[in-house]
Design brief:
- The protein is of the alpha+beta class and 143 residues long.
- Helix content is 49%, strand content 24%.
- It contains 4 helices and 5 strands.
- Helix 1 runs antiparallel to helix 2 and helix 2 packs antiparallel against helix 3.
- The N and C termini lie far apart (75 Å).
Length: 143
């Protein structure tokens, strides 16, 4: 153990911190790993253990204090991508078979869907464009 340099141990620690980063997807582990790499560089330059530990702590804390709030802000600002039936709401469709309060067929996003009118007293004829307001099961609700 005495013949292994301290910088190697810091790199082993950085690699060990990389494992939970990949498994848990928590970026804080990556920031700690970068701190360990910085400590390995300081150890490689010949500085004592106290300086190595201080470098690890300062770099890790600085990254967590600076990068984490920026990443959290960007995560909140990112628009959420609608997928599945949520992506179909608000889209236009073409009536294939007369649609009324009891049913009918539309072509929505290149697929044939069963549909019914939101207003049960309203009917839509073949070829007419309608807007999808909701999806209930496999039935599109249109206006």
């Amino acid at each position: 153990m005495d013949d292994i340099d301290a910088w190697v141990w810091w790199l082993v620690g950085a690699a060990a911190l990389g494992i939970p980063l990949v498994v848990t997807a928590m970026p804080e582990f990556g920031m700690l790993a970068v701190g360990a790499v910085a400590a390995a560089v300081v150890a490689g330059l010949g500085f004592h253990a106290v300086i190595q530990i201080l470098t690890f702590v300062v770099v890790s804390v600085a990254l967590i204090a600076v990068v984490r709030p920026i990443a959290a802000r960007h995560d909140r600002q990112r628009p959420r991508l609608a997928t599945g039936v949520e992506a179909l709401k608000g889209r236009q469709a073409v009536v294939l078979e007369r649609v009324d309060g009891s049913g009918g067929r539309i072509k929505l996003a290149g697929e044939v869907w069963s549909a019914r009118s939101l207003d049960t007293g309203r009917a839509y004829e073949v070829g007419q464009e309608v807007d999808v307001v909701d999806i209930e099961g496999a039935t599109a609700i249109v206006i």
